[in-house]
Every structure is written in structure tokens, then in C-alpha cells.
Amino acid sequence: MVSDSLRSSERRSIFEQTALVKLPFKATKPLQELVKRLVWSAVLLLTSTLIVWIDRDSYIDSTAGDGVSLIDAFYYSTVTVTTTGYGDITPVAPHARLINAFIITPLRITFLVLLVGTTLEMLANEGRRGLLDSAWRKRMRNHTVVIGYGTKGRSAVNTLRNHDVPVEKIVVIDSRPSAVAEANRSGLAAFEGDATRRDLLRRAEISKAREVVITLNRDDSAILTTLTVRQLSPRCHIVVSGREDENLPLLRESGADAVVTSADAVGRLLGLSSVNPHVGTVVDDLLSSSKGMEDSLQERNRRTAGRYSKRTSASRHSKRRAAKFLRSFNRSIAAR
């Protein structure tokens, strides 16, 4: 039993290490970068070999004593740029030593920087990712978490951005690496993993989120995710997309504040469009762009305000007439 708990804690620690936020950045292909560095290292090594071989008469081979060949020049350059230096081949002429000091030594330093820098950069990138993740989590407040970055998730994100929600306040969670990469290309912070896992939701700062939009393709996954989100964040507003009407009560009981049935809504829209094509056109216009809906709401508000102002002026006029009638009635009573 102890071993099982150790294994579970080990799996949890591994998950926590890999569940870092993936922020949008301009990435370079690692293999391409590695090949580029290897090519530059080979160019430096061949340059050093060529320099030594051209000036081979200024070098002495203490072991063979038969001069320096092309292979000896390559061997000398290899042990020199890697700072091994066996001492069997040495420059003896003054100008050869100056060439080693001012040309071979910078080549050696550049060669080491290329090779050692690759390893250091990999370690630095991991540390930098951890620092960026920690800084991102500290500044996340009142943000919107979109769970599921499929067709519905992308539409929800586009609608949020059209309504002036900052892109920095939108976080995406999806189990597919391609969806996470697409969210990063759109400038969104994203997590890759299962949204039903508490560790992942905690790293997305779900407890500090203002709103959570769940757009999963399966109702059972949506119900479990809604339950988990509601437990971790009792006060946030949860909007869930469901597929079947029979699952709506379960989605509401699991903690969803609003439930949208995608399959039923599409079916009703198809039915209305078949009965009256203009209805489908109007609904599509309202859904595809928020401008038409906003214009309609503004027009309705203006009409409501106009009717209210007319009713208010009529009420004030009737009150003045009533007060005038009462004053004249009182004067007539007093005259009697």
C-alpha cells in the first residue's frame, strides 16, 4: 500500500512538472537549431584545420618527426578546440604561435560556446518556463477559462474578443496538442491535459476565474468537468455546452449556471430555416456578428426610452391638471 501511494505521488509530481502554462511565443524548430549549431561547429573545426595545414612547416610533430600532414592538422585542430591539448604537435615559429593566440584561440572559444551553450540553453529554457509559469499564475485574476478548443471553443473565444475581453484574460484548456498550439498561435495562454484533473485546473487558477466556458464533445465529460470546476470555484459563472436534452438536468445539477444544447439548437434552426428561410438568415446574422444584435438592442433601448419619456410627460401633465382642478374647486368652496 505504501508503494502504491509512492507511485501515485510520483505520477502526480511528474504531472505537475509537465502541466505548465504554454504562453504564445515565436518558436524555432529544435532540430533545425541543433543542425545549425553543428554546421557552425564543423565550419570552425575545418577553418582551424585549414589554417594549421597551410602553415604546416611552422609546426613540429614530436612523436613522428616527419612533418605535419592534413590528418595531423585535423587532429591538432580537434584536440585544440576541445581544450584537450596532448602536446605532441606544437607550433614552433613565432608567427604560428601568434596565429594560435589570435585566431585559433577565438575559434576554440566559439566552438565551446556553441556546444556548451546548447546544453545550457536547454536547462535555461526549462528554468525560464517555470519562472514564466509562476509569474503568469500570480497575475491571473478575474479571467475566463475556456475548456475545449474545438469549433465551439474557438467561436466562444472569438465572441469574447469581439466584446473587448483582453486576450490576456482568456485561458484555454484542451487535451490535444494541436489545439493548444493553435491557441498559442492566436495569442492565448493554454494548458494541455485532461480538464477533469484537479491539478490542471488549479494550475489554470480556476478558483480565481470570473467565468468558465465548457465546450466538450461528450456530455459525460462535461458533467464531470462541471462538478470539478464547481467544487474548486463555487462563485464563478459556468456556461456549459451540452449535446442531448436528456442530459440538461444533470448539467444544471452539477453546477452549471447556463446550459446551451448545441444539437437541439442546430435542429431548431434547421427547422425554422426550412419553414421560413428569412428566419435562418436573421439568426445567422445575429450569431455570426455581434453588430446586428447590438444595433437591435440599441434601437430597442431608444424605443423604450422614448415610450418611457412620453409616459412620464403625460403623467406630469395629468398631475398638473389635477392640481389645477383641485385649486379651482377649493376656491369655489371658499367663495360659498
From TrEMBL:
<dbReference type="InterPro" id="IPR050721">
    <property type="entry name" value="Trk_Ktr_HKT_K-transport"/>
</dbReference>
<dbReference type="GO" id="GO:0005886">
    <property type="term" value="C:plasma membrane"/>
</dbReference>
<dbReference type="InterPro" id="IPR013099">
    <property type="entry name" value="K_chnl_dom"/>
</dbReference>
<feature type="compositionally biased region" description="Basic residues">
    <location>
        <begin position="303"/>
        <end position="320"/>
    </location>
</feature>
<feature type="region of interest" description="Disordered">
    <location>
        <begin position="292"/>
        <end position="320"/>
    </location>
</feature>
<dbReference type="GO" id="GO:0006813">
    <property type="term" value="P:potassium ion transport"/>
</dbReference>
<feature type="domain" description="RCK N-terminal">
    <location>
        <begin position="141"/>
        <end position="260"/>
    </location>
</feature>
<dbReference type="InterPro" id="IPR036291">
    <property type="entry name" value="NAD(P)-bd_dom_sf"/>
</dbReference>
<dbReference type="Pfam" id="PF07885">
    <property type="entry name" value="Ion_trans_2"/>
</dbReference>
<dbReference type="InterPro" id="IPR003148">
    <property type="entry name" value="RCK_N"/>
</dbReference>
<protein>
    <submittedName>
        <fullName>NAD-binding protein of Kef-type K+ transporter</fullName>
    </submittedName>
</protein>
<dbReference type="Pfam" id="PF02254">
    <property type="entry name" value="TrkA_N"/>
</dbReference>
<feature type="compositionally biased region" description="Basic and acidic residues">
    <location>
        <begin position="292"/>
        <end position="302"/>
    </location>
</feature>
